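Renewal narrative, Specific Aim 1. Our central claim is that a sequence can be written position by position from structural information alone. The example that follows is taken directly from our test logs and has not been curated for this report. It begins with the C-alpha cells describing the chain, in the order in which they were read.
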C-alpha cells in the first residue's frame, strides 16, 4: 500500500499483529503484567469533536472514547498513569474535567481489578493559579490528593508551577512535600518533570543546577522513604537517571520518564512511566515480555535470544518517540493523539485547547512513516485513508 507524503511516495509495510488479551470485567487478573518491571502508560484524553475545545475554553471530553482507550492499555498489561501532562494538564485540561477524569478512570479500573494497581493519577496545584504562599500551595495539593485518594487510584504528586514560582530554595520544597506525605496517608510516586516538558518548572527542587537539585530531591526521598513508592524522572538524561536510581533508598522504584532512552534504561533496571507508551503499547508489551523471558531464562541461548528480541522490538520505536518528543517537547501530546486517531481509537484528530494544531503537517507525516516502520499502524487502510484526508485539508 502506498501514500504520497511530503517528501515523496511512501510504501507501507505489512501490518504487525501484536499479542494481547482483551481486558474483561470481573477478572482482576485479566491485564497480564508484562514482566518484572512496573510499567505505566501515561494516557491522553480524547476530546469531544463537537465540543468547543478552542484555546482557553473549558475542556470538552469524549468520555466513552477516553475510557475505551484506557481499556486498550490495560489489555496489553500496562498500568495507566492518568491526569498527567500527557492528558494535557496545564495545557488545556481544566480542574473540572480532571476531577471527572480521575473519578471515571478509577471507577472503570474497579471493574477489572484493584484501581490502585491499575491506575495512578496526578495530583497538583493547577486549579489554584493564584496560590502564592507555601500554605496555599500545600492546601491546593491536599485538595487534589484527597480527590485521587477518594477515587481509589494511586497518587502521583506532580510538580507544581505555583511552588516553583515562590520557593526560595530546597527547604521550601521539603516543607511542602513533608506535609503532603501525611495528607496522602499511603506511599506515593513523586514526579520530577524537567523544564523541556514545562519551562515554568525550571529550577525545581530549589536549583537550576541539576546536581544540586538532585541532592535536595534525594534528601527529601531519604527522609520519607516509607512514604515514597517511587520517583518518576523526566529529564531526558540517561546518565543522570542511572546515578539517581543507584542513590535511591532500598524499595523506592525509579520510573523512567525518558522518552528518548527508555529501552536501555528499562533493561538496566528502571521501571517506567512514559507518555510514549500511550502510542506504542502493543510493541512495549511485547518487548517487556521478551525482557521478562530473558531475565528469567536459565539457558544462556534463550536469554540471549530474548534480549535480542527486546532490542529488535523496541529499536524502531525510538526514532518514532524522539520525533514525537522533539523540541518544543511539551507539544508531544499532538503526536500521541495523532497516532490514536490513525489507529482508530478515536473518531477525530482534535484535542482540548485546540492543541492538534501544535505540530506541522511535515512533522505529522514523519510520525506516520516512523509509526509504520515500527509496526504500529494497526490498520494500514484506515491509517492511509485518514492521513490522506489530513493531507488534503492541508492542501496536499
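The sequence written for that structure reads:
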Amino acid at each position: 500500500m502506498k501514500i504520497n507524503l511530503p517528501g515523496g511516495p511512501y510504501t507501507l509495510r505489512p501490518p504487525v499483529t501484536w499479542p494481547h488479551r482483551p481486558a474483561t470485567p470481573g477478572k482482576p487478573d485479566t491485564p497480564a503484567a508484562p514482566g518484572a518491571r512496573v510499567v505505566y502508560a501515561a494516557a491522553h484524553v480524547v476530546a469531544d469533536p463537537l465540543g468547543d475545545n478552542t484555546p482557553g475554553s473549558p475542556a470538552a471530553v469524549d468520555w466513552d472514547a477516553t475510557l475505551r482507550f484506557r481499556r486498550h492499555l490495560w489489555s496489553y498489561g500496562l498500568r495507566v498513569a492518568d491526569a498527567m501532562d500527557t492528558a494535557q494538564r496545564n495545557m488545556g485540561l481544566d480542574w473540572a474535567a480532571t476531577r471527572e477524569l480521575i473519578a471515571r478512570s478509577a471507577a472503570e479500573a474497579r471493574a477489572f481489578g484493584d484501581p490502585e494497581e491499575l491506575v495512578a493519577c496526578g495530583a497538583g496545584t493547577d486549579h489554584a493559579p493564584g496560590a502564592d504562599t507555601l500554605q496555599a500551595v500545600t492546601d491546593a495539593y491536599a485538595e487534589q490528593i484527597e480527590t485521587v485518594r477518594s477515587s481509589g487510584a494511586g497518587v502521583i504528586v506532580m510538580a507544581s508551577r505555583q511552588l516553583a514560582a515562590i520557593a526560595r530554595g530546597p527547604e521550601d520544597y521539603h516543607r511542602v512535600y513533608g506535609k503532603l506525605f501525611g495528607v496522602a496517608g499511603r506511599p506515593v510516586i513523586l514526579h520530577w518533570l524537567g523544564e523541556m516538558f514545562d519551562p515554568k518548572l525550571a529550577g525545581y527542587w530549589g536549583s537550576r543546577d541539576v546536581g544540586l537539585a538532585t541532592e535536595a530531591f534525594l534528601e527529601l526521598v531519604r527522609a520519607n522513604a516509607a512514604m515514597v513508592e517511587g520517583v518518576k524522572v523526566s529529564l531526558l538524561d540517561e546518565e543522570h537517571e542511572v546515578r539517581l536510581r543507584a542513590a535511591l533508598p532500598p524499595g523506592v522504584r525509579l520510573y523512567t520518564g525518558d522518552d528518548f532512552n527508555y529501552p536501555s534504561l528499562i533493561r538496566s533496571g528502571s521501571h517506567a512511566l512514559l507518555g510514549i507508551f500511550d502510542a506504542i503499547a502493543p510493541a512495549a508489551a511485547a518487548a517487556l515480555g521478551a525482557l521478562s523471558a530473558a531475565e528469567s531464562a536459565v539457558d544462556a541461548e534463550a536469554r540471549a535470544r530474548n534480549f535480542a528480541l527486546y532490542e529488535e522490538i523496541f529499536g524502531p520505536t525510538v526514532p518514532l518517540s524522539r520525533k514525537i518528543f522533539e523540541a518544543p517537547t511539551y507539544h508531544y501530546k499532538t503526536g500521541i493523539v495523532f497516532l490514536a486517531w490513525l489507529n482508530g481509537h478515536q473518531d477525530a484528530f482534535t484535542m482540548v485547547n485546540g492543541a492538534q494544531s501544535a505540530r506541522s503537517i511535515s512533522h505529522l507525516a514523519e510520525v506516520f512513516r516512523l509509526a509504520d516502520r515500527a509496526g504500529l499502524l494497526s490498520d494500514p487502510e484506515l491509517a492511509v485513508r485518514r492521513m490522506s484526508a489530513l493531507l488534503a485539508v492541508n492542501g496536499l
